[in-house]
Amino acid sequence: MSDAPLIEVQDLRVHFPVQVSFLSREKPVVHALNGVSLGVERGEAFCLVGESGCGKTTLGRTIIGLTPPTQGDVRYDGEVISGLGHSDMRPYRQRMQMIFQNPYASLNPRLTVQSTLEEPLRFHRPELSDTQVREQTIEVMSSVGNDPAWGTRYPHEFSGGQRQRISIARALMVDPKFIVADEPVSALDVSIQAQVLNLLMKVRAERDLTYLFITHDLSVVEHFGTRVAVMYLGTVCELTTPKALFEEPHHPYSQLLLSAIPKIGRKNFKPVKVPGEVPSPINLPPGCVFHGRCPHANERCTQEVPVLKQSGDRSVACHAVEEGRL
Amino acid sequence: MPLLEVRDLEVEFPMRAGRLKALRGVGFSLDGGERLGIVGESGAGKSMAAYAILNLITEPGRISAGEISFDGTRLDTLDDEEMRHIRGNRIAMIFQDPMMTLNPVLTVGTQMVECLHAHRKMPEAEARALAIAKLREVAIPSPEQRFDAYPHELSGGLRQRVVIAIALLLDPAIIIADEPTTALDVTIQAEIMGLMIELCDNHRVGLILITHDLAVVSDVTQRMLVMYAGRVVEAGPTADVIDTPAHPYTIGLLHALPQKNEPGGMLNQIPGNMPSLAEVPTGCAFHPRCAHADARCKSELPQLRMVKERRVACHHAEALT
Fold this sequence. Notes:
The complex is a heterodimer. Chain A contains ten helices and twelve strands. By secondary structure, chain A is an alpha/beta fold. Chain B has an eight-stranded mixed β-sheet with strand order 6-7-8-3-9-10-12-11, sandwiched between helices.
């Protein structure tokens, strides 16, 4: 084990081509990620927040190798893993697993729970005997709070919360070190959300896991996260601890986002006015991507792209913060 | 007399194995200009209660008991023709996904004018002017151009504004909004909620907001109902219910929120799942998940009764508040 962060990405860019008329000479692309650099330390629950289209899911998928980066590297424990071939990637796939948002779509309806759980283990560790595989499924099923006797049943026989436990169990089967959880509780009811979040915290402690937690729910971040990156249009605008972010967001977009979340039990609620809309990721605005909606933007913001600058326990990508105007 | 009053409403669906009761005695009222929230988890019957008001329950489901009166008229006994004069005209509805509500092959303007012509006789030019005025009212930029736009040309936030503008077209007395912001981002949600509060205040429109999000209910509504397994378990002024919940289910829901827990610690959770409507437990439907349940809770159905300014359906409500 080296001193490097468990996961590190450097100047990661992901562009997706957009289909236009085949006669057209233009080759427009969606700029899903525009130079993201960050590191996830061992044992962290690193949260990515932002609104739809900000690139948080793309970042998670690129780290785990489901989407190839257009430019930049992904490192696992100091080793570059982006661009590896299938067989070279295989040992890393075992160490990195993913949990998806919708447990109704992420489980194969034609496979029993037992086969769903066995599949990754038989793929990654073909040397195990049937008994060993069965023992592992029983162990994992009980650790996620499901009855191991449910193995013969099919996904449709379970509720949303139970299904999400099954997808968590599937991710845990191969004994991973790093899990990307993409909105794992968004599709669940409040009382079930708490059950699943507790489970995720429990298995993290028991199995020494590191999480990349993608969510739009800031209260989950505050409760669960060790650090949080706020994303906007494919860039990280602020990276800090949840406590620091909630006490005093520095980046103008973080401020806007925090002011917009509904809060329980506050008196005299004043609706916020949100200026403008998120620009298209096909034609990114020059300079800071947020300048068109930012009350503090000046000439420099419209021309020069701000980079993340660290001060204390927080990094902010904003000219106004850097110049002390904010 | 309140503008809308629902009493002992029951909705049932005939099944092979017997009758499934989706609503098992629901009552509430709404005044003009009032904002009422209905919260509950999936399957609690919150949407069903709202659909029943407009008689939108899909066959073979039907209202099997209870009364719904609106402005002196019994809605539950109206025939289809009479209901058409109420629906969309006096009581409008906003659904979760604006793309499902809007017709993708018609322009925004065509859909608005169509809605006006269905209920009022008015010349084309007047209808157009009225539609554009409503688009302006919901703060859509350059409404004259948006009038000729197709739904796919608009962003999610603008689409939901168009849906609200259509709901407002005929100056309804009540708007029923079923999870109107669940599909939207938080910044857009904040704007839409602000807009809805403003419109309700300005036009004295009553709002029934159905949502699973307790924070949204807390910010937007004045009174709220908490539903569980087809019944109202707690109802009262929103601030009171949120600050000092009285029913164990409401207490459990609020305590399960990450905001109400120490960061990094385990969240309080309600054990178990909402029961299926086909096998609702005897007595209080919540008793298998409740820490305070005793023999009486297992056998006797608790009725809603006044406990400290609100209605609670729990045998132990006094002891818990």
